[in-house]
Amino acid sequence: MHEFDALDGALLIDKPVGPTSHDVVDAIRRQFQIKKVGHCGTLDPNATGLLIIVLGRGTKLSEKLMSSDKVYEGAIKLGETTDSYDADGELVTSLPVPPTTLAELNELAATFVGDQMQMPPMVSAIKKNGVPLYKLARKGIEVAREPRLIHVYNFRFSDYQEPLGRFRVACTKGTYVRSLAHDIGQKLGCGAHLATLRRLVSGKFDVTNAIEFEQVLALPLSELEKRVIPFLKLT
Questions:
Q1: How many beta carbons lie within 10 A of that of residue 229, not counting itself?
Q2: Considering 8, 44, 86, 183, which one is annotated as catalytic?
Q3: Residue 235: per-residue pLDDT
């Protein structure tokens, strides 16, 4: 078996608002002249938090790392629906928010716990005949999507100040948290969208052990190598 290089492994990045997951991959590839760089689980541009970047032969483990369970926290804004189900999208409806308490929101959130079939949003990277759905959505084309089986382990609101509810959710891979936000709004009858999202945990990795994106780009290569989780510790 070949010896592993110091850059064969994974890097835990705390992604800021703004760049896409692909932007982060590109910047690291260019900055450190690493041929193979990938990421495990897309975060939308407005989402922050844990992004696992795989380097060199670590890219062979991306499917395995991507299949792990996730934990997120964020805020849902009641009363407004958007076409993307999050704050990035165009406003579709705006309705008054009915009198709602934190306890009522948690009763509603509890109905989402367990196995369920979830309809992915049109604005998503899922492909239909090889074309990402978000590209079709930009052209105003809506197509039938296949619901996907997901599992929500825990979903709780910690605070509610109308119209914002702050929550934490633990779920399987492939769960669209913005779809959960949209569905909460539908059940309340006033609509809702995902205002903010932060990924805290992916599998056994936690954002508290991640390094900020800008800090990574400022590291000399010798320091970057010290931050890489070796390939053999990932398997």
A1: 17
A2: 44
A3: 77
61 and 111 share one domain:
no
CA distance 21 to 16: 10
How much is the pTM? 0.94
> If 0-12 CB within 10 Å is exposed, 13-18 middle and 19+ buried, where does residue 108 land?
middle
The whole-number pLDDT of residue 128 equals 85
Asked whether residue 153 is assigned to any structural domain, the reply reads yes
Task: Domain count for the chain, please give it.
Answer: 2
| Cβ neighbours, 10 Å, residue 133 | 20
User: Which tens digit of pLDDT belongs to each residue from 121-166?
Assistant: 888 878 888 888 888 888 888 888 889 999 999 999 999 999 999 9
Q: What is the pLDDT of residue 37?
A: 98
44 is catalytic: yes
Query: Is the domain of 45 the same as that of 55?
Result: yes
Range of the domain at 44: 9-67+204-234
Look up residue 111 and give its amino acid. Answer: T
What is the CATH classification number for the domain harbouring 115? Answer: 3.30.2350.10
Residue 100 lies in a domain: yes
For 210-226, what is each residue's pLDDT tens digit?
999 999 999 999 999 99
Predicted local confidence at residue 114, as pLDDT: 98
Q: Are 146 and 109 contained in the same domain?
A: yes
Residue 9 backbone class (left: φ over 0; alpha: ψ -120 to 50; beta: rest):
left
Query: 153 and 86, same structural domain?
Result: yes
